Amino acid sequence: MLGFPLPYRDELLYSTIARHGIHSGIVSPKELLSEVFGDRKILATSDLPSHLKRIAALYPEKIGITPESLLYRNTLFPLYAPFVGEARRLALIRELTANGKSSVHLTSGAAASRIKQPMYLRYCPECIREQLNEHGECYWRRDWQVAGAESCPVHGSLVDSKIRRHNAHRHQFQAADLEVCPLLEQQPGERQSDLLAQSIGELLNLEPRLTPEFSQWTLWYANLAAENGFNRGTQVRHDLVRDKVVGFWGADWLSRYGLLPYDTETNWLKSMFRKHRKAFSYLEHLVVLHAFMEPGWKLADIVDVVSRLELSQKTPTKELKGTGESELSKYRSKWLAAVKEHGTKLARLNGFGDVYAWLYRRDRQWLMETNRSHKAPEPKQQVKVDWHRRDMDTLKTLITLRNVSELRLDDLRRSRNWYLNRLEHKAPIEKHLDLLPLCSLFFDRYCENIFEYQIRRMTRTAIRITRDGEPLKRWQVLRWSGLSEERLTEPASRFLKEVLGI
Ligand SMILES: [Zn+2]
Asked: How confident is the model at residue 385 (pLDDT cuts 50, 70, 90)?
């Protein structure tokens, strides 16, 4: 088999397989299945594909791609992983990586979930445009396919492609291209969607970690209600919880996802604040967390805290009396030190949650007063920047970057962004280019444009083919470079004719 393509960051494996079909000119879906899987009956599943051992084996070992890394980086598995309990998570990993038939859709709750998945594969037109510029081809990103995040946080609303997620052509891997993803104009994204897109991006990129048990999630939400004063003794005030969640998201938005909690004895939100008997979906967790947590919270911190919660620790209810003075002052000074180091919000998430809980139950008034007087400090006064100095220093870095990368044929297009992403002060430099005349000059002169990039990729391909002793063929050079006649720029086309003679 020709080199199986490396997945791009956040690319669905489904998309990588489809690109392989295009790169190697395989037209028949069955033939593609047989080449990749050695089996013509595999279903083309976009969100939770199986047979990952087989795919991982297509790469050279030294690249370090494993079935688990594919599962975590190139499928929607991380949406479910932190919420299903540890035993279930391990069982799912086993099932999805093995080379057998998978029944995961039926068992992971993806099929049975209240949350309706989008019907079509979706895309962000502006990102597609950037992908084409950067790579000369486009691909399906996994964060575009998640219900709740209906927008790209950078460019605006996502658009439905022409490809159904669970379609009639169940064995076909369909690549993203301008035919199925036309470059339509985008509406701005909604506040709720942009917010979720951020935390879904975070969720998808959580590294594999221990998953909390249902009982730990139960305790976490009970504590959350209590810390907000939404309890009467051990009872959760579901009416107050509901007001907070509906107030944050709006009734219209919640009902769009079937998440508006009706005032009945059981609804999903009440169940979330009761004993967890089954897994809740990522969207239900995120809807509650966003409504309750202060801005700036991190999902990774929460999953870690929850997975370390000790079950003997009961929900804080009444303040406990009769605590010894020395113990009290020990806990007080622990908390003060933690607050000085992390601020009140982050102290709890940085290993001092138990100190907080202890004081909350025994010394609540002191705790509240201390926290009020230790609000996170104001951001420091901005240091004045010497722009001339920065211009010179940055230019030196840029020239070094150029010199070391010049002979590397495999880099992405060395655009202005490519350079900027490698700088320490990316954002201020991008924003103040008018104050940086030397850097601006550098960008004007040395950034690679589309045709230069196309020529570089074709050179790389031509070297590879010639080294293997094969004759150069025009269609082959184009395809292996991820290009097509339509996309080829005029100067690149002349390069093919006049320099390579094809
Ligand atoms: Zn975008």
From this structure: confident
Chain centroid to Cα 271, Å, comes to 28
Mean pLDDT of 51-77: 92
In this structure, are 240 and 135 located in the same domain? no
Q: In terms of pTM, does the model score above 0.85?
A: no
Q: How far apart are CA 350 and CA 72, in angstroms?
A: 25
Domain count, the chain: 5
**Cα-to-centroid distance, 144 and ligand 1 (Å):** 9
| d(CA 499, ligand 1 centre) in Å | 37
Task: State the pLDDT at residue 72.
Answer: 95
| Dist. CA 149–CA 450, nearest whole Å | 32
On whether both 40 and 135 belong to a single domain, the answer is yes
Coarse DSSP helix, strand, coil percentages of the chain, rounded to the nearest 5 percent: 55, 5, 40
* CA atoms of 340 and 317, how far apart (whole Å): 27
Question: Lowest-confidence range among 85-99, 205-219, 273-287, 370-384?
Answer: 370-384
**Residue 111, pLDDT score:** 44
Write out the residue range of the structural domain in which residue 441 sits.
387-448
401 and 460 co-located in one domain: no
For residue 6, the CA-to-ligand 1 centroid distance in Å is 21
Q: Tell me, yes or no, whether 431 and 463 share the same domain.
A: no
Whether residues 33 and 151 fall in one domain: yes
Domain boundary among 308, 340, 360: 308
- The rounded distance, in Å, linking the Cα atoms of 438 and 431 is 15
